[in-house]
Amino acid sequence: MAGVTDVIFRQICKELGADVMVTEFVSAEGIMQADERTRKYTEFTEEQRPVGVQLFGGDGERMGEAAKKIIDWKRPDFIDINFGCPVNKVVAKNGGSSLLKDCPVLSSVASGVAKAVGDQVPVTAKMRIGWDEKSVNAVEVAKILEDCGMQAIAVHGRTRAQGYGGAADWEVIDAVARAVSVPVIGNGDVTCGADVARRKQETAVSGIMIGRAAMQNPWVFREAKEYLETGKEPMGIDLEERWEMVIRHCRMAVGSNRYGSEKQTLTAMRSRLMAYCKGFPGAKELRQKLCHVSSIMEVEDLAAFSLSRLELADS
Fold first, then answer.
1. Is residue 103 among the annotated active site residues?
2. 131-141: per-residue pLDDT in tens?
3. What architecture is the 7-230 domain classified under in CATH?
4. SS3 state at 293
5. Which of 63, 70, 56 minimizes the C-alpha distance to 24?
6. DSSP character string of 102-137
7. Whose CA is closest to 149, among 184, 185, 123, 177?
8. Per-residue DSSP letters for 156-203?
9. Which listed residue (13, 85, 250, 277) is catalytic?
10. pLDDT digits (tens, 9 = 90+) for 6-43
């Protein structure tokens, strides 16, 4: 979720019912070099707690030192280690899911962070079920992580080779949850309250993690809680409320100065805006226009156009 779960989007998700959140992952080496850009990724507000800072890297000692620096800066509720990212530039640096095929290094990273942090905050891990379909080793890896001191494990039900294609394998996630004594959080293909209820009922997981579904629908957290309480799918979010959220997100991002000028901010947000608009009436045309926005006014004009066209269709 790099480039997505920044401090602003997490604020929105928290308001809409997210319980526990994790920052964008950060490079341990960037932290060690006191890189200001890297440090920005660790930002969170008090209202967002409980929140964890997620680290990636391939050197246990350096990872441990980086974790201690983060705790000194702004004590998070936990440190999370990323053993799941499939992106080539992360894998090439011996980080993320690359360690699933090198258990000795994975073990040294997990134990290095756990020992460095001690009892200051819990250390958790996020992983995939394996490198590819021929090496699905999630149960083995989870046991190693538990032995190394991880206090919870989140499992995404795809291999690194799958990326985000195909279906998440919840049978493997369930097997992991039954194999270790620490809490296991399941992740993958959870898009609504019914998905949450089903996975909680059918597997031994202690919790459910929602990732990419929130990019299009941050209301998913509120909707899931409502479904768990009532057993009924809530009413969908109407187009006007969705556009209000899109514009609010843009204003918050520009006001934060996180990405620079208004033009720089809207340029950085284009892919986010396109995700929000998935499923909107005329979504294909909207996405083409959103590829070129550089101001909040342009987004507001698109919202007005989209809503007026809906009114015409309904009249």
1. no
2. 999 999 999 99
3. Alpha-Beta Barrel (3.20)
4. coil
5. 56
6. -HHHHHHHHHHHHHHHTTSS-EEEEEEEESSTT-B-
7. 123
8. EEEETTTTT-S---HHHHHHHHHH-SS-EEEESS--SHHHHHHHHHHS
9. 85
10. 999 999 999 999 999 999 999 998 898 876 777 788 99
